[in-house]
Design brief:
Elements: H1 10-17, H2 19-23, H3 26-38
Organism: Candidatus Woesebacteria bacterium GW2011_GWA1_39_12
GO biological process, one term: translation
GO molecular function: structural constituent of ribosome
């Protein structure tokens, strides 16, 4: 039986895909802007 590929970890998720991480780079800021413009309920 193969190992599971997704092992949930809230801290790691936030550190990798969180708002502050997104906001740290130009491309990440663009992602946030795009999602706000699109009207996403959850920006991240």
């Amino acid at each position: 039986m193969p190992k599971r590929t997704y092992k949930p970890n809230r801290r790691k998720k936030a550190k990798t895909h969180g708002f502050r991480k997104r906001n740290a780079s130009v491309h990440g800021k663009n992602v946030i802007k795009r999602r706000i413009k699109k009207g996403r309920k959850r920006i991240i």
